[in-house]
């Protein structure tokens, strides 16, 4: 590993080890989205491009792991109907990925990626709304003001290989 990779690895390790539950959720969505994109690309055939079935398989499995992790961390008791609806949606997405891996269907992967992107966007909006409401009620909270300005400047980026994600996410191997 060269110095650039070491620095990136250290940054990613810090990002995960200091992340809030909400940030970890967004990072998890990002990893799933990235895995779907890679799997879609691996299944494409075209001018000078051959399918890479091994890569597609690995990335689909990683996306399945992400969906499973989202299912495991979902509290259907506390979350009521909304959580149960999300659980059904995650189950549907998981089944699409299983079928995509067996039948090599990039359209299934694309569907899951789009759903993950929409869910991530909805969570981001909800979190920003809650943070702004809290900020209005607590204008003296300088830490929150700094956190909000950082969020506006730098979106959460998915780590390429999160080193301690397995500890934080209940055993999910996101590193591949």
Give a verbal description of the structure.
The chain contains seven helices and no strands. It is mainly α. It starts with a helix and ends in an 8-residue tail after the last helix. Residues 158-176 have low confidence and may be disordered.
Roughly what is the average pLDDT, rounded to an integer? 82
Q: How would the global form be characterised?
A: globular
H/E series? HHHHHHH
**Structural classification:** mainly alpha
Q: If helices are DSSP runs of H or I spanning 4 or more residues, what is the number of helices?
A: 7
β-sheet strand percentage: under 5%
pLDDT below 50 for ≥5 consecutive residues: which ranges? 158-176
Number of strands: 0
- From the alpha carbons, calculate the radius of gyration and give it in angstroms: 18 Å
Fraction of residues in H or I helices: over 70%
Largest sheet: none
Q: What is the terminal separation in angstroms? A: 17 Å
Quickly describe the structure.
The chain is mostly helical.
